[in-house]
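Dear support,

We are seeing what looks like truncated structure output for some complexes. This example has two components. We would appreciate it if you could run it in full and send us the complete token output so we can diff it against ours.
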Amino acid sequence: MMHLRTLLLTLFLLLPGLVAANGPLTIAAASDLRFALDDIIEEYEREHPDDAVRVTYGSSGRMTTQIMNGAPYDVFFSADIAYPQKLRAEGHAVTEPEVYAIGRIVLWSNRMDASEMTLEDLLRDDIRRVAIASPTHAPYGVRAMEALKSVGIWEDLQPKIVNGDNIAQTARMIQAGGAEIGIIALSLAEFPDLAEHPHHLIDDALHEPLTQGFIITRRGEDNATAHRFADYMNGDTARDIMRRYGFVMPGEELPDDATR
Amino acid sequence: MFELSPTDWMAIEVTLKLAIYTTLILLVIATPIAWWLANGRAPGGLRTAVQALVALPLVLPPTVLGFYLLVLLGPAGPVGSTLESWGLNHLAFTFQGILIASVIYSLPFAVQPLQQAFANLGRRPTEIAGSLGAGRMDRFFTVILPMSRGGFIVAATLAFAHTLGEFGVILMLGGAIPGETQVLSILIYDHAEAMDFASAHRLSLGLLIFAFVVLFVVYAINRRFDTVRL
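Here is the complete output from our reference environment:
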């Protein structure tokens, strides 16, 4: 207790942290990338051992709000290009939003054979809860809502709908038993743990495309790693990994065997 | 079973750093507040108001606190924009930001045990020491501090333990940046979300055991002093 001065000094030493630092590359990424991007970063770090990359996953809407509020992310991979476009328009991005993949939505369950089901089956009495991502700030939730509206069951399904904060949490809600079935990203349904259970690929004519875009933020402008990683995302290694997780690459079609 | 990843270690480091700094800062600022609340000469209404203010984090949803701090400390907020205009960084999504949040969030847990200890002590011992010629600092370090040692131990422990368990405020204000604002509670949430239940389980169990040991040690020490009971 006599060392009050030492304590104050220590606290003072914290202050330099306030000054802007160009540390490692910090990525904000939509939750549908959770497994694919982890693999890509692993490959990237193997090829660029001097670059440190850290990543935070969440819903694209929340990430956008955080970036507007000054969150220290250098690159932002959104599940919906509308968010990066908004950031660009409001001066938070230094690059034009670039499409890196098209996402797809699927019906998935670990208790019933979703591959044998259609969206209309969700009204069945033996299904009490249907999980989707929150349509207010998660792009996959918006697309799920559009698809359910297109087949005309959105209103009737309301009492059964439970919302996940983001698409990964939605998948977990189903896996943990909170909902019997739900609409999740194909990229998550292709993750080994979840791929044990079959899914039903939802016709992409039923919803607007999940055009996924990324930007480099104002903060990442001078971060060389940010630009290097952005280039890497367009390279063959990253695209192969993305394809493996069921993402459609810009200008390509989903291979037939993806619908199992 | 207990192999931790580099991300886990980073989160442990951030969490411990946060809890230790929070506890130290709280001991410094909670002591005068608690003394004033216990023995101050202020009118009753003002004292009640301050007491209510200090206890607010107990009842407010952490998201409310997190939201206001985000507004206040972010680049557009009064504090954040002032810092920016001085060429510094705003505090949202930084370690300093969650440190400020933790101090506010755990304030009642430091103030209340101290207040109780000081109230039990009363003004008498310090007045006697004063009449014997002890200065203010001397009175504090040689009379108050040793006599309410138990209160300090409980205050420090509760502040420390409560910071370990913080979640909602940091979720709002921190953004889960590894090595910066990703504390253990957030990382456990993240592991669960990634369906990495083995990692979530490892960290949860570790935190559970650690929390128990901390409390056990404190209650054991506290029983020896037996000055303050919770």
